[in-house]
Amino acid sequence: MYALITDGSISKYINNPKSLVIGDVRYPAKIFQLWSKSELNAIGIYEITFDDSNKKDEKWYINTNQSFTYDASAGTVTASYGSATAKAHADTTWSQQDSDDGDLPDDKEVGDIKTRGLKYNLIQTLKSQVANELSKTDWYITRNTEKSTAIPSTISTHRDAVRTKQAEMETAITNASDTPALETLYTYTEQDDGSVTRPLGELPILES
Q: What share of the chain has pLDDT > 70, as a percent?
């Protein structure tokens, strides 16, 4: 991606090499392949450098739009992000101020849930994962109910382990103090033994 500099500021963005007119001269698209950086700069074309140092994982943060800056002394055009905003980790509720401002919906009361935070959504995802894992062995339960066929101890042990781990994971999510703490729970890192794990851990999976 390139920027065209006119009179000391960015006048156009060029997403793909193409023929373009600068002043009274039409330049072919091939200049982007054949010309050197200095030759392109001489007619006001600068390749954009992307600085993603402030960009954060959008699962946890809301990033700003990119801003483009031309530095005449350095001869560079840089696209960068501002400071990201952490998504709310906890639910927010309708306040008295919302009511006073006339923003409270007719079907809501002060104190009702306004928006769900990350904790709620992560726990709902976890519950779905647990349900999916347990569904693999639900037929043992159904068979036991209908035919009184004993449930194998390995199956009962696995189902109990899933529920126990679910409770541990939900507690860890609930106790996270803020969004960075939630992100840490889900961040995988390599251990001394070469394994890759995360603080939250994993649900037990029944070996086939």
A: 100
What residue type is 51 in one-letter code? D
Separation of alpha carbons 15 and 122, rounded Å: 37
Distance between CA atoms of residues 208 and 204, nearest Å: 12
Q: Biggest alpha carbon distance in the chain?
A: 89
| Digit-coded pLDDT (tens) for 13-64 | 999 999 999 989 999 999 999 999 999 999 999 999 999 999 999 999 999 9
Residues 5 and 28: their CA atoms lie apart, in Å, by 18
Cα–Cα dist 4/23, whole Å: 12
Strand partners of residue 25: 22
Residues making up the chain, counted from first to last: 208
* Residue 104 phi, psi dihedral angles, 5° rounding: -75, 120
In this predicted structure, what is the pLDDT of residue 207?
A: 80
CA gap 146, 189 in Å, rounded: 46
Rounded to whole angstroms, how far apart are CA atoms 199 and 171?
A: 13
Q: Which two tokens stand for residue 153?
A: 């101890």
Give mean pLDDT, residues 160-183. 97
Please say whether the beta carbons of 112 and 85 come within 8 A. Answer: no
User: How far is residue 132's CA from residue 120's CA, in Å, rounded to a whole number?
Assistant: 18
At residue 125, φ and ψ (nearest 5 deg) are: -65, -40
What backbone torsions phi and psi does residue 178 show, to the nearest 5 degrees?
Answer: -160, 180
